[in-house]
Specification:
The chain has 292 residues and is an alpha/beta fold. The protein has a domain of 203 residues: Rossmann fold (3-Layer(aba) Sandwich). The chain contains ten helices and twelve strands. The strands form four sheets. The chain has a five-stranded parallel beta sheet with strand order 4-5-3-6-12, with helices on both faces. A three-stranded antiparallel beta sheet has the order 8-7-11. α3 packs across α4 and α3 crosses α5. It binds adenosine-5'-diphosphate.
Length: 292
Amino acid sequence: MAVVNRLLKPRVPTFYSLAGTLRILSSSSSSSSLNSGIDIRPQSSINRKPLGLDPQGRSVQWVFLGCPGVGKGTYASRFSKLLGVPHISTGDLVREEISSHGPLASQLADIVNQGKLVSDEIIINLLSKRLEAGEAKGESGFILDGFPRTIRQAEILDGVTDIDLVINLKLREEALLAKCLGRRICSECGGNYNVACIDIKSEDGSPVMYMAPLLPPPHCASKLITRSDDTEEVVKERLRVYNEMTQPVEEFYRSRRKLLEFDLPGGIPESWPKLLQSLNLDTHEDTKSAAA
Ligand SMILES: Nc1ncnc2c1ncn2[C@@H]1O[C@H](COP(=O)(O)OP(=O)(O)O)[C@@H](O)[C@H]1O
């Protein structure tokens, strides 16, 4: 219980919005409100307000949900740069723990390589340590990627803070497996790439979805590695575990009117502007430099 308690810091005041652009309404009356009940209406002063902070100067606390391979890390990292809050991926925390060869390393490697979830206690312990280290450096706010992944994790998070927004990224199932299998990481700089070319056609041959590969620059090309859990068998198990353990978390946030469902229309060039648009962030001047 002690490890869980580390995350149980005093509850911060109720949710706050992104620079006044987001309002989470309990009713669903506006023409621009999404089915999720999240009302994201244009604000006349959107271009002048600093992103990532609400009018009281508090930093945003967002969560990214979505199946393995959907691109949570890519979009979470872009929003992290845009909003000036840290991108915290619990998958990265687990991988760092494994490569540190600490006492939990071999146990964690076994779990990850089977496509199973690490226990709630271990993951909360890793996340607490990361949040504490960030706090010590003066970080505030966060974009969580890969957490919460179980109802229990969602309840614990809900008990300690109010999440502003949960973005649920969705992609056609046939693209998810291909994207996981195509994922490559540069062993030197840590850059993320994808060699898969997703080109889904309808029965009459017309294009349904196209996602170009994200190829590495020449200096990374010879140093690419693949995640040990990105094999076909393990990805299929991760997708099964997602449906069983994490899909209920979508409902947890939907019922609290915090869930924004976003169907990715294609690769980053098509999806990023549309995602910004659905958050009414597309007119903000900072978004022009965030697509790096
Ligand atoms: N919140 C979490 N709860 C339990 N296990 C987690 C959590 N986050 C990450 N993990 C472990 O780390 C692995 C890799 O996570 P991640 O990089 O987020 O993968 P994915 O591409 O499947 O979303 C997961 O399969 C799981 O074993």
